[in-house]
Structure formats: C-alpha cells, structure tokens
Amino acid sequence: FRYAARIDAGDLAAPQRLAKQRAYLDAHPRVACVGMWTQVVSRAGEPRFMLTPPADPRTLRRMRFLRSPLVHPSVMLRIDAVREVGNYRAKYRAAEDLDLFLRLMQRYDCANLPELGLYYELNEGGISATKRRRQLISTLSLLLRHFNVLNPYDWAGLAKNLLHFVTPYRTLQRIKRTLFAARRSA
C-alpha cells in the first residue's frame, strides 16, 4: 500500500474523499499528508461548525500551532514518509497526531484540500474532552520543541494554548459555539 486514510468511529467521509486525496498525493510527490475541511456535527447529525485549516503547505506550516494544521480523521498519509519519520509515538500522549504531523512537516509538505471531506461527530467522551489536560501538556511540549521565535504565529499559538490550559472545557466550548455561530451569520 502507498497510502493510508484515517477516520474515527462515528465520523462519515464525504463522497469521493478518498479518490480526491489519492489523486492529490499522486500529483504532489512532496506532500506526505493531505487533509480536508471538516463539518463538525452533533451526535444527532446537526451541523455545529466547520473546521477549515489552511490548504497551502507553507501557510499550514507557519500556522501549525495557532490552529490544528490538519484534522486527524480527515487525513490520508503517504506510508513511506510515515515510515521514514517514524510512526505515532506514545511520548506525546493524546497529541500523537500533532507530533507525527510536525515530524512530517520537517521533511515534507502537508496540505489540506479546501473542500468538505469529513463529517466529524462531536463527542463529549472523546480525547479532546476526556484527556484534555494531557493533550494540552503534550501540545505545549511539542510547541516548545518546535518553537520558532521569529514566527508570530508560534507566539500566538503559545498564548492560545496557555489560555486553553487555564479555561474550563465547558466554558471553552460555549465560547467556540458563540464565535462559530457569529462567523456563520456574518
């Protein structure tokens, strides 16, 4: 196999997702990982908000800590590149995906297709909710390990992650819902 695609239980791939990602990887040999935009839905399937990370590899690399560079269950990975940098590592618990993406970005490009590829089920029992503190500690460790003092987005990402660390999860979810609702109506 040349490629591997990710998806989580409860999530649903948009039609043609895999074909589009495979075609993109076939056409872009320097790209090790390609994700897609994601519609976050409730357990009942009601749309909540869209995740639209940058498409361009350069922008994605620059903004890697300000927002998630790739939506993990939306990605297709080039197997040889993953073998080269090493697979998921337990060293950064609950942020193994970010660790892998950062290591891939050191040697390759990563990108996102700027179109809907996944319906992601928001789950209060998921890692982002149940292992939040561990995930934030791992994310901050990765941020410090890969920190570029000349990149203003790394500074903004540090501030954002520290704010997440001290803000209760439910409060953060309310803020996100409000911001995404305001953005949707604008």
UniProtKB/TrEMBL annotation:
Keywords: Transferase. InterPro entries: Nucleotide-diphossugar_trans. One of its GO terms (molecular function) is transferase activity. Gene3D superfamilies: Spore Coat Polysaccharide Biosynthesis Protein SpsA, Chain A. This is Glycosyl transferase. It comes from Burkholderia territorii.
